[in-house]
């Protein structure tokens, strides 16, 4: 139940009409109606008055919202990373997003592979394989042929 639902429920339990509570709060009936429908937010002073008039606790009115806020709490390290991310230009954000997604996929696949038993090995997706230059083993090279000139791994220009 949200703040506005609890406010209305509390008013009804106190036996007050919208007109009566609005008058006690010093606001228009339409303003109170907006609070109770969730279309308007009361000021802190108005909330304090309502708590006193309705004889209720702020924790009661905001209990669902405090749960949501607790779930949204982030560490200071995470906050610093988010601030840095928001300072990046669009290209920088794209690079971070790409790297994050690929590392997430790799880590998830690795965890699944480690979780698998010897009989049921989970293969890493091919797009997560290491991409490096290696000597070709899929071609037949005649014996005695010097291939060192063709090996880019030994070429300082590459």
Description:
- The protein has 158 residues and is mainly alpha-helical.
- It has seven helices and no strands.
- Helix 2 crosses helix 3.
- The protein is elongated, with a radius of gyration of 32 Å.
Structural class: mainly alpha
**Element string (H = helix, E = strand):** HHHHHHH
Q: Percent of residues in helical segments?
A: 55-70%
Count of helical regions: 7
The mean pLDDT is 78
Strand element count: 0
Portion in beta strands: under 5%
Stretches with pLDDT under 50, minimum 5 residues: none
Distance between the termini: 64 Å
Oligomer: single chain
The global form is elongated
Taking Cα atoms only, what radius of gyration do you get, to the nearest Å? 32 Å
Largest sheet: none
């Amino acid at each position: 139940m949200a703040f506005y639902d609890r406010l209305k429920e509390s008013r009804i339990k106190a036996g007050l009409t919208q007109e009566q509570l609005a008058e006690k709060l010093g606001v228009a009936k339409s303003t109170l109606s907006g609070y109770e429908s969730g279309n308007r937010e009361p000021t802190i002073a108005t909330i304090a008055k309502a708590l006193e008039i309705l004889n209720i606790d702020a924790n009661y009115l905001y209990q669902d919202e405090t749960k949501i806020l607790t779930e949204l709490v982030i560490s200071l390290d995470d906050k610093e990373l988010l601030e840095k991310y928001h300072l990046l230009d669009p290209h920088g954000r794209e690079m971070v997003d790409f790297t994050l997604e690929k590392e997430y996929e790799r880590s998830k696949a690795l965890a699944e592979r480690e979780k698998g038993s010897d009989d049921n090995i989970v293969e890493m997706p091919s797009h997560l394989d290491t991409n490096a230059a290696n000597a070709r083993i899929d071609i037949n090279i005649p014996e005695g042929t010097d291939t060192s000139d063709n090996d880019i791994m030994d070429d300082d220009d590459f």
